[in-house]
Amino acid sequence: MNLDNIQEDKKSYIKKSIIKSMMM
Known about the structure:
The chain is an all-alpha fold. It contains 1 helix and no strands. It has one helix at about 5-24. The longest helix has 21 residues, at about 5-24.
């Protein structure tokens, strides 16, 4: 597993969560 990959995943996941909460 690649640490950079995991961090990118977390970032995009957080971004999606923020966008979702903004839509609410």
